[in-house]
Structure formats: C-alpha cells, structure tokens
Design brief:
6-stranded parallel sheet; globular; alpha/beta; 344 residues; 31% helix
C-alpha cells in the first residue's frame, strides 16, 4: 500500500521523501510532488441536452468507463517521467473552454442532498487502487464552481464533505490528498461555505473525520491572484492555512516571476511561519517555464492543459486523450523527467 505523509515542507511516500536526495541546478527537489491536472477522470453528464458534446469521434457517443480506463492505462507512463500525482475532482472542471459562468452539464459525484453517486465513486475507487498499486498519489477535489449549484444547500454541502471524507477513509487507501474545492476565491460559488471567508469550516470538517485513528490530509485551493489581478487577494486566508495540512495555490496567467511570487507570498503568511508546510501548485498552464520557476522556490508544479473536445489536445475537455501525444504534453513530462532525473 502507498502512504503519503508530510514532514515539514516535504512530501513522503512510505516514509521516504519523494525523489530523495535529488537536486536540479542547485535547487533541492526531494519532497516535491509534481502533478498533472486530470480532473475529468470520473466525468459524466446527466444532462441529455449536453451529452453530445463529449462524443468520441470513433463511436459518436460518450463513455465514462472508457474515459477512466484509458486514464488508468496511462498512469505508468506518467510515473516513469517523474509525475507522481494527478488531481481528480468529484465535480470535474470546466469541460469547454471559457464556460466558467455557464455550465448546464451535470457532472457531479455528489447529489443534491450531499449523498455520493455509486457509479462515480466506483470509477474513482478503481483509479485510486490503480494509482496505489503504482505508488502514485491522487489529489481528490470535492467541489467545483459551476457544479456546486447542483447541491441543494449548505447542509448538503457539509454532508457531501463528510460523506466523501468517510468514503475515502473506508477504502483504507492512504495515497490520497484532499482539495475541498477548486479555487475557493473565484466569485462563482453558490454556497457561502465554499467561499474564502468560510471554506476553512469545510477543511476542519474533513480533517475531523477519522477511522482507526487515521484522518485525511486536507487543503483547499486559491487562484494565486490571477482572477483578481492581485496576488495578495489570491492566496489562502489565514484561517484556511491554519487548518490546512498543506497549501494549495494555482498560478494560471502568471509568468515565471509571478509564479515564484505566489509561493513566496504564502510563505510570508503568519500561519505558514508558525507551521511551515508544503506549498503546492496543482494548476498552472502549459507554460513549462513556470515549472522550472517553481522548482527555484521549492514548490511542486501542476500541469493544466485545457485542450479542445477533440480526443487529441489537452487533459480537461472530454473526450480526453490521456496519452502523452502532443508537443505541449511532451514538454511537461520531459521537463519533470529532467528535473527529477527519471530515466537517467
């Protein structure tokens, strides 16, 4: 069984720092969790009017089982390049570019009452087990703006958090990190408890779930300021960081300087100084220059490739081709391999 843990600013797998002893151009690499955003791993759509958007070109229809099975088949290739983690979401992510404010599709593993949908969770379990067998980590996100509207009210959001956390603990798997919601500071969430002023309540709720003396490793992500035009407005709140086990930030739309500044801004927070922890970027872009910039400030970086709905480009627009099949994907995986010395 694969076990993720934290020691200060480092991630450990089975008690050993990831990429133990490795450095790159004088920068330490051991303990960094390089990752790829693959949030549509368990994607489906319960809206018949939008289902046709995701049809595979060879069959003319969408198939959620094919989607997850093809991703599972590619996990060994990602790991061989040094990419140790992927992010998946119970409510997916924006499946068509520039549709943040208009999401009529229904892609949520959490039903209106906060209960979990068996078909989604079955796909997730198979993915978690496959990753566990390989020694890989899965960052599991619960809520996503544009889809949280399909959960009835705040009490249902809390139930969803509790139910998802209990379900993950019941699997017995320990290769899991939690991201309560994607970019809580994006002002598109319906429920106040998913917004910056109160999201720490859900972090606390998830951390308080235990089984056999074990609890989950929990955080939630913030935009890094790209949505607001100000880094200071896009880093975790003190309340969220105080309760989180690790810090999660996104660095979309930032250049190399901005990427480093986001990480350093988190490290200037009072809660961080009181208790240093890993600062993780689990969403940026296809700009691999930012990957190397993140390493300079000792932060793991997350590849985000939106792509088109064409079974070729990207990793977020279904139907997704999970192969390393484009120049953009290859640059990321080759970049990580270079940094960690994979295949050397």
């Amino acid at each position: 069984m694969t076990r993720i843990s934290i020691d200060g600013q480092k991630f450990l797998i089975d008690g050993v720092p990831i990429h133990q002893g490795r450095s790159y151009k004088g920068n330490p690499v051991d303990g960094l969790l390089f990752n790829c955003r693959m949030v549509q791993a368990i994607f489906d759509d319960e809206n018949p009017e939008t289902l046709g958007n995701w049809a595979y070109p060879d069959t003319g229809k969408w198939d959620p089982e094919r989607n997850v099975n093809e991703l599972i088949a590619e996990l060994p290739e990602y790991l061989a390049h040094g990419c140790t983690a992927i992010t998946v979401n119970l409510q997916g992510g924006m499946p068509i570019t520039k549709t943040e404010r208009a999401q009529p599709w229904v892609n949520t593993a959490i039903d209106p009452d906060g209960e979990l949908k068996p078909a989604y969770m079955d796909r997730l379990l198979r993915l978690l087990k496959a990753a566990d067998d390989l020694g890989m980590i899965v960052i599991v996100g619960y809520y996503y703006f544009g889809q949280d509207k399909f959960v009835t009210d705040e009490e249902a959001v809390k139930r969803g958090t509790i139910n998802a956390s209990r379900w993950l603990l019941e699997t017995g798997l320990e290769n899991i990190l939690i991201e309560i919601n994607n970019e809580s500071d994006v002002p598109l969430y319906v429920h106040d408890i998913l917004k910056p002023a109160r999201v720490h309540e859900l972090v606390d709720l998830a951390r308080n779930e235990e089984k056999d003396g074990r609890r989950l490793i929990v955080s939630t992500s913030f935009t890094g300021g790209s949505f607001h035009g100000s880094i200071a407005k896009g880093i975790p709140t003190e309340a969220a960081l105080e309760l989180s086990d690790y810090a999660l930030v996104h660095t979309n739309r930032h250049d190399t300087l901005g990427t480093r500044q986001v990480v350093e801004a988190v490290r200037q927070m009072a809660a961080y100084k009181e208790r240093p922890m890993p600062v993780v970027i689990n969403e940026d872009s296809i700009s691999v220059a930012n990957l190397f910039a993140a390493v300079e400030v000792y932060a793991p970086w997350g590849y985000y490739d939106q792509g088109d709905n064409n079974y070729r480009d990207g990793y977020q627009s279904p139907p997704v081709n999970w192969h390393i099949n484009t120049p953009e994907k290859k640059r990321f995986f080759d970049g990580v391999a270079e940094i960690v010395g994979a295949g050397a």
